[in-house]
Amino acid sequence: xxxxxxxxxxxxxxxxxxxxxxxxxxxxxxxxxxxxxxxxxxxxxxxxxxxxxxxxxxxxxxxxxxxxxxxxxxxxxxxxxxxxxxxxxxxxxxxxxxxxxxxxxxxxxxxxxxxxxxxxxxxxxxxxxxxxxxxxxxxxxxxxxxxxxxxxxxxxxxxxxxxxxxxxxxxxxxxxxxxxxxxxxxxxxxxxxxxxxxxxxxxxxxxxxxxxxxxxxxxxxxxxxxxxxxxxxxxxxxxxxxxxxxxxxxxxxxxxxxxxxxxxxxxxxxxxxxxxxxxxxxxxxxxxxxxxxxxxxxxxxxxxxxxxxxxxxxxxxxxxxxxxxxxxxxxxxxxxxxxxxxxxxxxxxxxxxxxxxxxxxxxxxxxxxxxxxxxxxxxxxxxxxxxxxxxxxxxxxxxxxxxxxxxxxxxxxxxxxxxxxxxxxxxxxxxxxxxxxxxxxxxxxxxxxxxxxxxxxxxxxxxxxxxxxxxxxxxxxxxxxxxxxxxxxxxxxxxxxxxxxxxxxxxxxxxxxxxxxxxxxxxxxxxxxxxxxxxxxxxxxxxxxxxxxxxxxxxxxxxxxxxxxxxxxxxxxxxxxxxxxxxxx
Length: 585
Known about the structure:
Among the domains are: 168 residues, no CATH class; 224 residues, no CATH class. It starts with a helix and ends with a strand. The N terminus is likely disordered. A hairpin with an 8-residue loop joins β16 and β17. By secondary structure, it is α/β, with parallel strands linked by helices. The protein is 16% helix and 29% strand. The strands form four sheets. The chain has a 29-stranded parallel β-sheet that branches. A five-stranded antiparallel β-sheet has the order 1-2-3-4-38, covered by helices on one side.
């Protein structure tokens, strides 16, 4: 009997232990369900903070740090968009906190929606707790006024964890993003059109086509500053009403190519007309038929594209000519970029150079009187052309050193070979290389050089040759007309490799037409800056015109029954601040 009684007592204890174990197991399972939901919510909150900080930072002016008020408003919109269960009536932030000039001291505003409490902050100084996760790196983190931060805090009640005495918990997700823009930063953009308001900023016509290719892991990018506001004016645009137009012809196209592969890097055609800014007209950005009409040009392997590829997407602000001015003519202020060529005093403001303490106005220095600009013998030039030669020459002629070509009516290479080796050249008048003539400037350079043309342009006729290696060309009043045509005509033009004008092949601000005709012998390398060109014309001429050049021009037209192929070259271009924003915390 005792044994039976003992057994029954053990059984009672076991039942209690089993009951307690089951309760613990159920409680642990319940807590695991709550924790899994918590991890899911925290991930969603982190993604929302990342998106809000990035979208807000992209609104900030990269130089002054202003526009943070609009950055706050955009960040708030993204928070509401990406958090699905906010519920209730949101309490929005007071974004006027961020109005005015950025001083570098932390400013913040709060908001709430349902279970969420938000903090939006700008600027975010180096010593703020939001920046404490890692050591400050100036190259990555930028300046405080370039940063905008977002913090999301949520108190979540446990559903099942209360079985074990856990009522609720609080989670925090935060992100800091910066507008990643300063001189030398940005993206590789082979083609930037600076036209601010009108149509015809970028055109493919006459069976001409343009392809901006990828380079290694860098995709093709095209950017157009025009807001499309004047495209309906027939006096300005004729029948065309688009800022980007492939002209409804199966042999015309405008393309930027992605980096191919299993994880392709997308290309972009960026349009300010699509920005949504006041005055911008998205209907005039591009012809919708160009992004829906498939064509299959000759390619290897064969691939079907559209006349305009990819479909243009918006930029948040005009890029303007500022990136080039900052690099080569750094000043505290610039004249406004003209809306209308007839009214040069009225136009788009250009951001002042942010680092005048370390850079200089190199262009202004070069063109100042007594230097290469002005009249008379430039400083340091002891060889005067007309002391030895006439202004119209027939080669062979070979000279070295710096030469003042005092030919105001023009320097003409009639025929034969004329070579200037290892020196700078200052021309009083235009340079004209006529058929069967050859002009070689520094064909075997040991250093970088300058060609300064005080009046008139640079002209190359059909069946002629022009070579300028490691040479920067400055045109004070003229344009270029480098014609193609049948025959052995060749154009080789490469920019300096070092110094104040590194990577700059051409600077010409005259409101004229510019033209480069295409031939297989062409080789262009460097940045061609023609901010007033109306237009800059590139001609394919029945084949492919290959170039490693970067063009920043007011308007560009590609024509001539051929294709112009532009390949970005990171080592021979100026980085352009377009979409540069990055998460840093």
